[in-house]
Amino acid sequence: MGDSHDWDDIRAELHDGDDDAFDVERARTEAWVSAWHLAEERKRLGLSQRQVAELMGVTPGRVSQIENGDLDADEVATLSRYARAS
After folding, report:
1. CB–CB of 66/53 below 8 Å?
2. Which one of 5, 6, 33, 84 is at 20 to 30 Å from 58 when CA atoms are compared?
3. Is the pLDDT of residue 8 over 80?
4. From the centroid of its chain, how far is CA 70?
5. Would you say 38 and 86 are in contact if contact means Cβ atoms under 8 Å apart?
6. 69: Cβ–Cβ under 8 A, 6 or more apart, which residues?
7. Which of 55, 48, 46 is nearest to 83 (CA)?
8. Where is the signal peptide (predicted)?
9. pLDDT tens per residue across span 18-63
10. Going from the N-terminus, what domains does the chain have, and what CATH number goes with each?
11. Distance from C-alpha of 64 to C-alpha of 36, rounded to nearest angstrom
């Protein structure tokens, strides 16, 4: 068997020292994971994107953007409305 590494070793090897870029990518990944969970919850509840959009007061296209993680950090209010609608 080859050498084993833990995640800290791999992260340290790949990290180029640009903490700002690292933080941006981490936030984007976390937004995508959260968005996936929102979409899964909507589906579990049997709601369409159109239904959620009507409850939120946004377009179905915006719901699609939210579920694809296409959010700015200042869109927490939109997410809050999404959660209440679902």
Report:
1. no
2. 33
3. yes
4. 8
5. yes
6. 28, 31, 32, 34, 35, 36
7. 55
8. none
9. 888 888 788 778 878 888 888 999 999 999 999 999 998 999 999 9
10. 8-85 (1.10.260.40)
11. 11
53: Cα within 13 Å, side-chain hemisphere: 13
Q: How far is CA 84 from the centre of its chain?
A: 17
The pLDDT value given to residue 24: 79
Helix axes 19-44, 60-67, angle to 10 degrees: 120
CA distance linking residue 26 with residue 46, whole number of Å: 31
Q: What is the pLDDT of residue 44?
A: 95
What is the b/e burial string over 48-84, where b = at least 16 CB atoms within 10 angstroms of the residue's CB? ebebbbeebebeeebbebbbebebeeeeeebbebbee
Query: For the ranges 6-10, 36-40, 74-78, which has the lowest average pLDDT?
Result: 74-78
Can you read off the two tokens belonging to residue 83? 């959660």
